[in-house]
């Protein structure tokens, strides 16, 4: 079939017998063909490239690193957008989980997980970046990692607001945000030498490299990101000037097709404006504590902070069609589960909004779902086996992968474990409307398990509920969890 498709058009009723072909012509044909293939090599010899692309698009992504080493033509094909576009059309694209960890020296390291094969791949390290600044005092030069670990907590930022602690002066680069758009990972902003930067770095898994792209209009750290209509939105965060740290209300959006950033109307923070006195307004700093894309709009929960307290003030919703912000429904904003100051974990799975709420015992949590009709968060999973280490910035993460809820956590044996819950198969406590009702109905045996595990130096990975399934686990040493994203390619 391939030879037929590859041969040039000829007269349909003309048959040339091999006996009538001269020896000279017979020798010329392979020589011309060899010259042609040297100049225009096919991906697979004797097959049209159209069929070769069909074959490559059906291969598991985990094989692509080895396939690229077969030949230059194979590498060129594997790294082309044509193959990945074809994978989407054929329905062979795969969702991978990308986990960001922090190792010693405050360096960030990415790891990719293929959930189908449970195999891991380490991404290339982010490159070193030379940065120069000139001032009246002369030339100040320094070298740094373009992205370093988020090694300070949101609490340190709040202390900086109050002048109690300035950790940003000696931590070179922290508070960066991560996002995804158009099949690529993005690392945005953060602090560098105590200043918020606007740099943006992109990782393209097709070619397995990092590259710097257009910078944001505003330098920001601890901002929140969201994907909507194939555009990457960035909101909030903090900046720093001579007066100290300043919370940001501004927002902007990145279009991968043009490679440009565009300003978006700033968040009103309407509830923060209702504070009764100027003293409270100065002490309580409004900040976005999360962002998720839900039903075609961006949902941004918000809080007011003053160390060591934080107050939830609901949130706001951005509608791209009207280009405006509206206040979040009261039950949604006030009841949005919070992990700690500065972070509210959420994920959308099959069009439903889920959030993770840790328990006070620090070794378990709950998964809640938002009910639009009743404007309330309901417990759907009353027990999530977690370990919360006090010195860890992100002891657990939440992700929507393969149309299921996933929790990523780290256990005492340094195993980073990915847990999967199939809520369509297991219906659990869907009638619960609050975390208190769920905890009161828990059996005494579950509490004894909690007490027994809390006495140990760490938690085990035993399946306390049939609902949870361990799909992958790997020992990354002392690495700490920072963030995670899902890419479909």
TrEMBL record:
UniProt feature, compositional bias: Low complexity: 432-454
Keyword line: Kelch repeat, Repeat
All copies of domain F-box, residue ranges: 41-87
Gene3D superfamilies hit by this protein: Kelch-type beta propeller (2.120.10.80)
Region (Disordered): 1-24, 432-459
Domain of life: Eukaryota
Alphabetized Pfam families for the sequence: F-box, Kelch_1
Protein's recorded name: F-box/kelch-repeat protein
Organism field: Iris pallida
